[in-house]
Amino acid sequence: MTSPAASTSGPDAAVSAAGAPSLAMWHAGWATACAVLALGGRFVGAGAEGPAALALMIMVAPGLGGLLLLRRDGFRQRVILLTAWSLSAIVAAVLSEGLGGPLAAFVFMPLIAGLALGGVRLGQMGALGTGLAAVGGLAAAAIGAPVGDNAVLAALTGVMTAAAAALALRLSFFTAQMRLERADAGLERYEAILTCQPGLTVVLTPSGRVLAAYGAPPPGLPAHILFEQGLIAAVHGPDRPAVLSGMDKALNGLDAQTRFAPREALDRRVMLALKRMQDGRLIGQMHDATAQYAREAALDAARGEAEARDKGKTRFLAAMSHELRTPLNAVVGFSDIMRQSLFGPLPPKYADYAVSIHEAGGHLLAVINDVLDVSKIEADRYELALERFDARDVLSEAVAMVRLNADEKGVVLTSVLPPAPLTVMADRRALKQITLNLLANAVKFTPAPGSVTLSAEAVGPYLEVVVSDTGVGIAAEDLGRLGRPFEQAGDAGQKKQGTGLGLALVRSLTELHGGRLMVDSTLGEGSAFTARMPVVELAPAVAAEPIH
Fold first, then answer.
1. What gap in Å lies between CA 3 and CA 307, rounded to an integer?
2. 23, 62, 194, 544: which sits with the fewest CB atoms below 10 Å from its CB?
């Protein structure tokens, strides 16, 4: 906010300081005195005749012109008025022989008018007008006829000029006093505003010495310590480099902000914002940041605890999955032996039990394998075994493994692979797992007689594996949750068909290869999952042989 005291600057500041009514009265008094002297001077023995009388009437003109300030006042108007004073004085000096004539005192009226109008520039212009009037009068005296002596007229004009000068000085003093009082009032108002602010504003030298401080100091950092010790000495030792760096940054013209602990109150925190002033000093704002620091510390502690718990959970899952997989392999293996009757036939009921045990064990083993892989990825313990191979072979193996399940459901499974080799540098097992999970998911949620299609192509350095289906599709509100561990889409019946780990594993393995998983789905029409990875090995360009 700009105060009235600071709303003008330059020449207009002086103009606004001197009131137009006072100046108009001063000009009116001068015009009246000149007119009375010109018309009634003969009654006191100071009658002016000829050129001197004309000069007196001319000096009435700027006095009357000063009345126009009541209508419009400004620096431009005062310059025009002072010009009229100078021209009138020059003409009067020429008509009355300048400093040697009876109106010699009028030569100084431009200077006096400049002082009355206010401002250094107007005073300098008035002095120039006085000088020109003196030179004009001197030239007129050298080449013209003498006007004649009139001591009484000279005395009266001298008294008039002296009185005008005294009143002009009074006006000038009054103007300066008003300006000073207004500046003091503005300064007090600004200091009151700064003192009442909730933070502390300080003015600093580039070395950190505090020159001024306004406002409420933050707890633990009294203002007298800043004045006595300086900013750097009042800061806790380990935080001083950050404060010095912020000061250097501010001195280079950049805004800087830093937080430090006061040396006398290490349990407190103060936020300091610094900026460079035009004179090279620094201005800074301080406020208490203890509560903010405590909140950030609590958040950091909670984040660290949550991360530790998450890592502990991941390690636990990895360990338990490993421990469960070993005996489960035995269950699956022995049930398979019983199912195939390798050691002799079983009663039909027991044979059905063996088949159920083998199927359930195989499903549970697949779930445990997925949990183990996901936990390894989350614990940053999964390492890719990169090798060079033809991606078509891995994709064809995945299609072959899912085809039996697709045929049993009545789903048509097709693959569209390029005729040329797709040479990639990737993890063979991970690419197979990605393809298997996408195909198994598509077959699982595609009712007969639907179709599932696998396609792959190289787009520059990217391998794009696309699995599309004509299944149930995914609702728009469920798309954002796909790919998170144990997150499933669809209704309760669809959620019973899986664990929510398949797509999570696909996304994680794709991202480990530097790629991303994209989904395009319409509810009731089908879905298309695209795994895009930068693993294609581009053939080196063959330089063309020059033509001779």
1. 55
2. 544
Q: Which residue has the tokens 């060079």?
A: 388
User: In the structure encoding, which two tokens stand for residue 48, read together?
Assistant: 């002016």
Q: Cis (ω within 30 of 0) for the bond into 11? A: no
Rounded CA separation 213/230 (Å)? 12
Percent helix, strand, coil in the chain (nearest 5)?
A: 60, 15, 25
Backbone angles phi, psi at 267, to 5 degrees: -85, -5
CB-based burial of residue 37 (10 Å sphere; 0-12 exposed, 13-18 middle, 19+ buried)?
buried
Contacts 24+ apart (CB under 8 A), 413-417: 413/439, 413/443, 413/451, 413/452, 413/453, 413/454, 414/451, 414/452, 414/453, 414/454, 415/453, 415/454, 415/455, 416/453, 416/454, 416/455, 416/456, 417/392, 417/454, 417/455, 417/456
> What 8-state DSSP symbol labels residue 547?
P
Label the pairing between strands 412-416 and 451-459: parallel
Looking at mean pLDDT, say which of 111-120, 353-362, 473-482, 510-519 comes out highest.
Answer: 510-519
- Rounded CA separation 66/391 (Å): 99
State the average pLDDT over residues 19-35.
86
Q: Which helix or strand (DSSP H or E) is residue 150 part of?
A: none
Token output for 380:
């940053």
Q: Residue-wise over 278-288: b if at least 16 C-beta within 10 A, else e? A: eeeebbbbbbb
Sign of CA dihedral 14, 17, 20, 25: negative
Structure confidence at residue 8 as a pLDDT band (50, 70, 90): very low
Predicted pLDDT of residue 42: 54
Residue 544 identity (one-letter amino acid): A
> How far is residue 219's CA from residue 262's CA, in Å, rounded to a whole number?
9
CB 526 within 8 A of CB 469: yes
pLDDT at 477: 75
**pLDDT computed for residue 46 by the predictor:** 47
Decide if pLDDT at 228 tops 60.
Answer: yes
The torsion angles phi and psi of 112, rounded to 5 degrees, stand at: -65, -40
Strands 270-276 and 386-390: unpaired
